[in-house]
Design goal:
Two copies of one chain form a homodimer. By secondary structure, the first copy, chain A, is an alpha/beta fold. Helix content of chain A is 29%, strand content 26%. At the A-B interface, helix 5, strand 12 and helix 10 of A face helix 5, strand 12 and helix 10 of B.
């Protein structure tokens, strides 16, 4: 049964199937071209149907950010799952049954005390997990210092401890999000690649081979010139893309597959403010485009049917409160009243799609002007 | 069955029962003292168990911000429910059965075209709803201009239209959130009160009596000197309180009843950053204390058991990404490493509790150092 747009309750999380299919297909082709495996990150999608499109023929490996994502993927038959968020060892308690039933869990680590705690807990539960050591190449967030002696000492300590095994190295090229010039991103990616390959070679000489040598971020997948010597690229946001990715040129506006459908509900005659029924909860309060050359406020306003920006492409959600959004031009002038009659439906494109999507239990999947399917999302943190 | 803190999976949304009970009780006493009915707003709590504490003996009236909140309250026996968010008339479609089964729905309105659209849809569905006209006294957000001729013209148009009836006036004193001096808040509240009473008197003379004359915001409840002539005060955040309310002096830190339980997972030896497993999704990206005299970052770090601020009370979540939070001192210096061993549990107090709680499907209710109950929340926007 299909539902026309006009019958959907707003706000609703829309997923445009044709754009998702194209993004997922292009990413698999890019990884193939680069000669590495693609490990899709599930932190963005959190939907089995999306995972199947992201994996294509290779239904074997994913990365996740929460425990409910593991449950959803393991139930769908995916065995090799990498946990990339901060990992408290008590999380292993809820994973015991899956680990005994064939779950191959890999955990990203960068702290000696944390590694000992994971080893102790895994040993106590009589389960086994693989550890990937995160290397901090660009100072973006987490990771151990990119120093050979530090890494070989850690790799050896993992190999010697019970309940855990050393699987390889990973670096997250998070600074690619902040570089608006593709050449700068390519230079940074090459620095990550060369660093990882050099450390892996040194570790191998010490009898500590890296089964996996991975790099991450969607811009890496889009922009890398080559990834010779690496085995994997890990990326997630590429399946939907967002305004932050478009702002650095790693995506086009026409690639954006997820948006929030909202309705114009009020217009203020005195100052021209136009209200929609989607605010800080429905859109998230993410402002990742604030530091970019085009500030998209809390999201870019598009036509509900075509998905293309309204008017001159300069109408944004300028302000939010919990359930109210206010539309204005990007320069602070009023949005043209004639474009926004009461009851008009609009789509709001996200700054950061992972944050926007998190407020919804499911996607409303759309094909043209109809919605036909609802795809559940793995929400929250507890099993 | 009770669960000790150490066995909870993190991040988890904690609700400290004794503080909630005290906040709810104090609010009922305040409203009684002020001689008005309390209409608790459900946008913050979204839990039947919390609503019962907020309502006390008066299980009859609530305000809501979403459709799922209506379903939850109506199932619990509450009939008179006011919808205060932007209202698209197609939302009436999903409410038909409840309206025919006794739901008394009141909708906040401030736009002539929107009122016509609600009337048309209600008439088409053969249901009836009450309309409350929102008056913009302080320029905070929505509402019609505070002009007698505008208000009487709107009230008359509501009275004359099918499917809808005129119930009264409401003003949201949102600017109270921005005033750090209680005397300033009291002066603003008095301006709201006097404006509403004067308009209601004029409307009554024109044969348009206000059955309800209401004012909103938790600081109104806490600070009003008197509310003579009004019938209701509407407030929601008071049941849990948050750092934004504490920042203006409308609450104490010891009143805050909701927090996120998180675990220290990593420490960076080079620059002293300490990571927890709660980031922008688990804490929200709300930064409402940024403009206040004490900037609490993404939340204030407290001891897991006592709920009191750690160390000198100056440790905050200084940075977040999707699932990572970074602890630092408020002045940008490193947090003391000895306070944060790997595995330590901490509670993070919220800037804006409505935003933080929204990421969770349920509260973990705590009594002392044990959790015994899980209270479900009404999430999302669709029925």
């Amino acid at each position: 049964m299909t539902t026309p747009f006009s019958d959907l309750t707003t706000p609703a999380l829309l997923l445009q199937r044709d754009r998702l299919v194209r993004n997922a297909h292009d990413a698999l082709a890019r990884a193939h071209h680069l000669g590495v495996m693609l490990r899709p990150h599930f932190k963005t999608a959190k939907s089995v149907e999306v995972a199947q499109l992201m994996l294509g023929q290779n239904m074997d490996r994913m990365a996740v950010s929460t425990l409910p994502e593991i449950t959803m993927l393991f139930a769908a038959g995916i065995r090799n799952i990498r946990y990339t968020s901060p990992f408290d060892p008590t999380k292993l308690n809820g994973l015991q049954d899956m680990l005994r039933a064939g779950l191959e869990l890999e955990i990203l680590v960068d702290d000696r005390s944390a590694i000992e705690a994971i080893s102790n807990q895994a040993d106590r539960l009589r389960v086994s997990v693989g550890l990937i050591v995160e290397v901090d190449v660009d100072g973006y967030r987490a990771g151990l210092p990119a120093q050979g002696d530090v890494l070989s000492s850690i790799a050896k300590s993992i190999t010697d401890a019970p309940g855990i095994s050393f699987v390889g190295l990973y670096s997250f090229a998070g600074q690619t999000y902040r570089l608006a010039d593709r050449k700068d991103r390519q230079a940074l990616i090459e620095r990550h690649r060369a660093t990882l390959v050099s450390f892996a070679s040194a570790l191998e000489k010490q009898g500590l081979p890296c089964a996996t040598l991975g790099i991450g971020s969607s811009p890496v997948l889009a922009d890398a010139v080559h990834l010779d010597g690496l085995t994997e690229v890990c990326a997630g946001v590429y399946c939907f893309q967002d305004l932050t990715q478009a702002g650095i040129g790693a995506a086009q506006i026409d690639d954006l597959a997820v948006s929030v459908l909202a309705t114009v509900t009020q217009r203020k005659s005195d100052d021209g403010r136009i209200f929609i029924d989607a605010g800080g909860l429905a859109l998230s309060q993410d402002r990742s485009t604030r530091g970019q050359s085009v500030d998209q406020g809390y999201g870019l306003v598009c036509d509900a049917l075509t998905g293309r920006p309204v008017g001159d492409g300069d109408i944004i959600v300028a302000r939010t409160s919990q359930e109210h959004g206010v539309l204005m031009r990007r320069d602070g002038r009023s949005a043209p009243a004639e474009l926004f009659p009461i009851g008009r439906r609009v789509r709001i494109l996200p700054n950061h799609v992972c944050m926007m999507a998190a407020a919804y239990p499911a996607y409303t999947v759309i094909d043209g002007d109809k919605s036909a399917e609802r795809w559940e999302r793995a929400t929250g943190w507890t099993l």
